Amino acid sequence: MSEKTFGIIKPDAVGKGYTGEILSMIEKNGFRIAGLKKVRLSKEKAEGFYFVHRERPFFNSLTDFMSEGPIVVMVLEKENAIADWRKLMGATNPADADEGTIRKTFAENIERNAVHGSDSPESAGIEIPYFFNQLELV
Fold first, then answer.
1. Which of 71, 75, 81, 84 could pair with 35 as two cysteines, CB 3.0-4.6 Å apart?
2. In the chain, what are the domain boundaries?
3. What is the pLDDT of residue 1?
4. What are the per-10-residue average pLDDT scores of the chain (138 residues)?
5. Catalytic residue at 53?
6. Catalytic: which of 88, 116, 128, 131?
7. How many Cα atoms are found within 13 Å in the side-chain-facing hemisphere of 104?
C-alpha cells in the first residue's frame, strides 16, 4: 500500500543549486513524485505553515529563513513514504546525520538544513493541502 508524504527543498538548498541532485536522490530511493512546484513563501505563509512551532524560540528565525528565497514543495509517494523520506533526509542536525543522507550532503547547520518532511500521517494530511489541491497531484 503506497503512502504520501510532504517534503520541502528549503531556500538554502534551492539557492545553492542543489534541487536537481536532491530530486535525483529522491527518485533513486524509489519515491514517485506526485506533486512538485517552486514557490516563494511570504513571512505570513511561512508562519501559517509552521504554526505548530509558534511558541518555540526558533519560530521567528525559522519563518524568516523559509521566506528568504524560493522553495520546492513536493508530494512523495511510495510504501512507507513518511519513514523512508525521514531516513533519506537524515537527522535534523547535519552533524548527526548519516553519510549519504540529504542533510549530511547538502545542509549547512541545524537551522539551514536543506529539507523538510512530514513526521506523521496527520502532519502530511495538513501539510500537503497547504500547498497542493487535488488537481495538482498526479
1. 75
2. 3-136
3. 82
4. 96 98 98 98 98 94 97 98 98 97 97 97 97 96
5. no
6. 116
7. 12
Residue 46's pLDDT is 98
Please tell me the pTM assigned to this model: 0.96
Task: Tell me the fold of 3-136.
Answer: Alpha-Beta Plaits (3.30.70)
The per-residue b/e assignment along 82-98, b for 16 or more CB within 10 angstroms, e otherwise, is: bebbbebbbbeebeebe
The pLDDT of residue 126: 97
Q: Are strands 115-117 and 32-39 parallel, antiparallel or unpaired?
A: unpaired
Cα dist from 81 to 44, 63, 129, whole Å: 29, 26, 17
